[in-house]
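Risk register update: the risk of archive-format incompatibility is retired. Evidence:
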Amino acid sequence: MKFGEIFGNFRKKQSSPKEAPSHWVKCSKCQSLMYFKEIEHLFNVCPKCGFHMRITAQQRIDLICDEGSFTEFDSSLAPVDPLKFVDKKSYKKRITEATAKTGRTSSVISGACAINGVSAQIVVFDFGFMGGSLGSVEGEKIVRAINRAIENKEGLIIVSASGGARMQESTFSLLQMSKTSAALTKLSDAGLPFISVLTDPTMGGVSASFAWLGDVIITEPGSLIGFAGQRVIKQTIGADLPEGFQRAEFLLEHGLIDMIVQRSNMKKTISDMLKFFGKNYKKDGYELKIKA
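Archived output:
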């Protein structure tokens, strides 16, 4: 057999870049290169500098919810295109691409779960679906989760990761800001707690509405949280911004959030808050439900 034939056979056995999984992860903060198993058991937190890398919505659910306890609701709800919106692509095409990418029909996953045995309703944003943008379907899912919490007398957790309101829906999207905020008023009137978890990034219409209305507002270290982007603000006011502006540590220092929690402690912190409200925040009877 000729050398070329041997070499040719060898090349055919090699995986293509698409077939071969990426086993190496580079930290965007300290630039350290790590084997993926190094950070897998650390919930995607860099062991070198502590940087909290972004994780998927499903990973977030697995992190917070007790194993096997999560039951999803309203998964069939899907956005429509009332404005026939087209920019570089049509809105319908963007929805199709986002669905193919994530396997979901919207940027919000909502359902019931148990967190260290405490029953709750949870909403998690998927930044992979059109940047976690807030549209009419996302707003409806949030309101339905709030209504379930009221009906079941349970606490509500919303984990935000969003670029803001979805421009392709225009006013329909902006209406979700007031719609969700009004629903949260009913939750508060029922004496039920809302824990808002802001992750990297939480911006725009999401941060300007329900994300800031939590009884407790929690963030992860280094999360970018704000309304307008830093470049827009700088151009508007014509001045340099403070160091660390819009990062979790800056917001905590200025009293805009309640606590910064390491990802490894997030589940325990949330369950502790739910138990605290169950004992101390009773109005019409918040029933702390502990699942065996």
